[in-house]
Each structure stands twice: as C-alpha cells, then as structure tokens.
Amino acid sequence: MSTPMVLTAAMVGAETTREQTPHLPISAEEIAEDAVKCREAGAAMVHLHVRTPDGKPSQDTELFRAAIRAIRARTDVLIQVSTGGAVGMGVDERCGGLKLTGADRPDMATLSTGTVNFGDDVFWNPRPLVRDIARRIRDLGIRPELECFDVGMVDEVRALAKEGLVSLPAHFDFVLGVPGALTAREDALDFMIASLPEGCSWTVAAVGRHQLPFVELAAVRGGNARVGLEDNIYVSKGVLAQGNWELVAEAAKRATAKGRTLATPQQARQLLRLDTV
Ligand code: KMH
Ligand code: ZN
C-alpha cells in the first residue's frame, strides 16, 4: 500500500483577483463553502489567506479568525495559515494568523525560507525576518510548512534546524514556476527532492498551467501536492475552474489514476507530524 497523498487547496492567495476569476472566494462564508467542497473532493488541508470585503489582500487576525471559525463549523479539513501574505507587507502584518490561540489556532503555518523575485516584484524574506517568523511559529506550537522557491532555500532550512528554529524531519513545499524563481520542470523537482534532509516530507505547488501535471509527478514520486486558485485559475486550457473544489477534484482524479489514495485530515496530521512539534 502506498502512502496516502495529502492534497492541499490554496484557496485565496494574495494575487488572484475577482477580475481574473469570479470564482475566487473572499468572505469567510464563501471560503468555508468552497472548503467543504474541497474536502469532499479529496483535500486534507487548506492553505489560507484572507481578504478585506473589497477583495484586497490582508493578514488581519480577525479576518483569519472569522474564516477559520466558518471552516471549522462545517468541516474537519486542516487549516494552514499563510505568513507570506502579499509582497510588500511587513513582518507583523504577515503574522496576523499566528495571533490565534485556543480553538482558533491554525493547524500549520507557512514559512517562506528566502527572498525571491516574484514576477516583477520581490518577495522579501531576508534571513533575520525568516528567523523571526520561524520563532513565532515555534512559540505557537505548530509546525511550519517550509516554502522553498529555489533549491538554496532547502539548505537554509538545514541552518534553521541547526539554530533550533525548525525541527527535523520537517515538511517542505516546493513552489515551482514563479516567474523569476525556480522553473516548473521535472528535473528541478527531482533536484529539490534529492536535496532534502533525511526523512522529510514534501508537497509541490506548481504555478499556472504546471499545477495539474505536477500533481501526477508528485503522485508517482510518493509526494504530496497543492492546487487551488492562489496558484492557477484554469482547470483546462482556457477553462476557468468553477471553484477551488474543481481543481482539487481534478487533482484527486489524476492522483488516484497514478495509484495513490488520498489522505484524510487525520492521516495528514500524522504524515506531516503535526502533533509532534
Ligand atoms: N503571496 C506570495 C507573495 C505564503 O502564503 O506563505 C507569498 C505567499 C507565501 O503566498
Ligand atoms: Zn500563500
């Protein structure tokens, strides 16, 4: 039996707009409604950003709280908050989701591990800032998903582990295909996997038209995948996905066709070691 595959739905993001797709969820209720369908389609986790009512990217604690409560009232899908936010945000703003404790505490949070060109912008993650966010995640007692936009960032995680800011084995997210960063190519994925510290798990989040083909590459390599409107709005060439759920459904179809079963949230909790931080 192969290891169950964890599908994550990156539902909202900071860059996708309603002008690009009318199916982007914005309010807590819209996010929760789509999250329920993502879970039914096979997602074990959602990667969460939030927006103000007019659609602007935000990392506001209360907007996160509302979205998390709306999701948890309806489904058991795991919730991973973004600490990346949108380019140009400061560290305190980015960490809004990490202020949630008790019943509203997220299950996981992203930790971007280095600075990278992000289209025509720069996603600014100097080493002291990465360490600041790593400490905040550690203090909340949750696991980071270590976002690597290029292969040197995997090495940076080794340094973070030596400093006691990340515990190994850890869970990585290889973000491939961001313009200006590592390309979405099969050999690039293989190099990332080969670079991992012993025993680590990984997800691949490929951007744009690469998103769904990389679900299949991850499936045959025993990895996990992230899909969703944050990274891609099309379910096939020129056809908008009707919601995040449709991308998850397509990912699930492709993963199971490659012989993988899909992880439940409970299985994902174990596979990603969320209870042993
Ligand atoms: N919006 C990107 C600049 C994360 O969520 O941790 C960064 C991002 C990363 O989305
Ligand atoms: Zn994100």
Please describe what this structure looks like.
The chain is an alpha/beta fold. It is built from nine helices and 14 strands. It has helices at residues 28-41, 61-72, 91-94, 127-140, 152-162, 186-195, 211-220, 244-257, 265-271, and strands spanning 7-10, 45-48, 50-51, 57-58, 78-81, 108-112, 116-118, 121-123, 143-148, 171-176, 201-206, 224-227, 234-236, 239-240. Strands 1-2-5-6-9-10-11-12 form an eight-stranded parallel β-barrel, surrounded by seven helices. Strands 3-4 form a two-stranded antiparallel ribbon. A two-stranded antiparallel ribbon has the order 7-8. A hairpin with a 2-residue loop joins β7 and β8. It is globular and about 45 Å long. The chain starts with 6 loop residues before the first strand and ends in a 6-residue tail after the last helix. 48% of the residues are buried. The mean pLDDT is 98.
Features:
14 strands, binds zinc ion, alpha/beta, binds (5S)-5-amino-3-OXO-hexanoic acid, 277 residues, single chain, eight-stranded parallel barrel, two-stranded antiparallel ribbon
